[in-house]
Amino acid sequence: MPNVAYPARLVEPPTLTRSIRILPEESARRTFQAGEVRLDNQDGLLDQVTGDWTMVGRPAILLRGPHREPFRAAYGEFDRMAELRITGAALSASGRVSIGLREAARDLAVPVTTPYAGTGGLEGDAGLKGQMRPMLYGAKRNLPAVTLLATQLVYQFSGRALSSITGVRDGGAVLAFAGNYASFPEMMTPSLPDSTYATCLAQGLIRLASPPARQVTADAVGAGAATHAGIALALLTGPGGLSGDRFDTASFTGTMPGGLAGFLFKGGTVEAALNEVTGSCASWWGSDRMGRIVAGRLFRPEAFPPDHALARWMLTGEPSEIEGTPPRWRQRVAYRVLGLVQSATDLTGVAAANPAAVSAYGTAQQIETAFDASVLASYPSATDPEPLVSGFDLAVDAQAEAAYLMSLHGVRRRRWRVPVGKWGAAINVGQSISVDHPRLAGRNWIVTGMDETGDAKTLTLWG
Fold it and tell me: Which residues, other chains included, contact 6 with Cβ-Cβ below 8 Å and sequence gap of 6+?
């Protein structure tokens, strides 16, 4: 209400912690933690919000403003520090209410796909009851078909619409295409010539003319965007159920690499699916201070001017170096990861006539490499990490990713912790800064972490 002083409730400021990945093998999840907010409840007015589940899941907006006496600062003078979600509100014997908080990104801990009911038709045979539908986003090769209706020879590659199904194979033997139909009933109507198949792209289905001898596979492309960023956005708006104001589209499309990519999900959550998509291209995702879902990825700090400049007097303490990682002399990136790996035995009847097919379907993934032998000569401890398993389909995109990672991690990098106090309020993780300090001057740094409790703020820098 206007012109009414708000009571002093906050016992101590919450600790906010944010961080992003540095190495591609680290978690793709951007963290935003707040722990608990402790409120004074000596007057008992907050009893109504404790001890039950009415608060759980509700937004909690943390604001920060100036302290004034005897008159309180106006609400309009407060800045938003974070939008989080409440996990509980417990009343302690000391008369305090402890409100647990989590990041808004946990709203995406919802199923990425749905189970078959096993009731026939698009819900499949009874044996499929409870099994999760496959959901294809982007392009994937050699996908195994789910037997949807065995006696009717109907198979499903994806529970969401596809833009194409090509190269349908019975144990490696290529079948002929007989046409696409707009709906499931229409696909079931015509008779099909021998050794052919019909499709219903809208339902991700095929129907065979005759019973297959071996595993049915195909190459397919999901409807909609087929890049890492496009797939991530489709997850947010599709199974994630988010409206456009809940995420920053430009942070996905403007930072994540282009190139044809694909992912097949057979269960799990949207949260886990986003970890896989962003992680496979060395990007990160999470929620920002406003509770919006954002994405990004590291860039070479020396390649761009800094977003912020910290003068010496803005530092509230001396920088301290923390342990980093040695440079890497080689970076491998896996691409064209098959939906199913098949051996020569699986491809009987094809192996002798088409050894190239055996090689293609028997290799789980292809590899592109970037390396610099001089790094190993300069740094005996230089590393050769396991390949980054990407979603890319083409070699050129995997090669570009390997070169990008070498540009980041194939040189000597250092990490520092720098206390900056209230002067860090305008800085966000992922941004580039310069610091006027003898140990840090002369180069730019990426902010990879922030810890703050009230005015006490410490940045973690990489560069």
Answer: 72
Q: What is the DSSP letter of 5?
A: P
Three-state DSSP at 148 gives strand
Rg (CA), the chain: 27
Claim to verify: residue 62 and residue 198 sit in the same structural domain: no
Give the per-residue pLDDT at 418: 98
The C-alpha atoms of residue 174 and residue 219 are separated, in whole angstroms, by 11
- Tally the residues of the chain: 463
Contact 405, 333 (CB under 8 A): yes
The predicted-structure confidence for 326-383, as pLDDT tens digits, reads as follows 999 999 999 999 999 998 888 866 766 678 878 888 899 999 999 999 999 999 999 9
Residue 425's contacts (CB-CB under 8 Å, 6 or more residues apart) are: 79, 457
**Pair (319, 423) in one structural domain:** yes
Query: 119 Cβ partners below 8 Å, 6+ apart?
Result: 126, 129
- Tell me how far apart the 2 most distant CA atoms of the chain are, in Å: 90
- Domain-embedded: residue 276: no
Give the chain's residues under pLDDT 70: 1-6, 52, 348-349, 351-353
The sign one gets for the Cα dihedral 274, 278, 284, 285 is: negative
Number of domains in the chain: 4
> What's the pLDDT tens digit per position in 184-219?
999 999 999 999 999 999 999 999 999 999 999 999
Identify the helix (H) or strand (E) that includes residue 236: helix 228-237
Partners of residue 369 on adjacent β-strands: 332
Residues 176, 351: Cα–Cα separation, whole Å: 19
Q: Are residues 73 and 203 in the same domain?
A: no
HSE of 371 in the Cβ direction (CA atoms, 13 Å)?
13
Q: What is the DSSP string of 65-100?
A: ----SSSPPPGGGPEEEEEEEEEEEEE-TTSEEEEE
CB atoms within 10 A of CB 124: 23
What is the rounded CA–CA span in Å between residue 66 and residue 64? 7
Structure-block tokens of residue 412? 């000597």
Domain endpoint, select from 44, 75, 105: 105
State how beta strands 366-371 and 330-335 pair.
antiparallel
Domain of 445, in residue numbers: 301-324+413-462
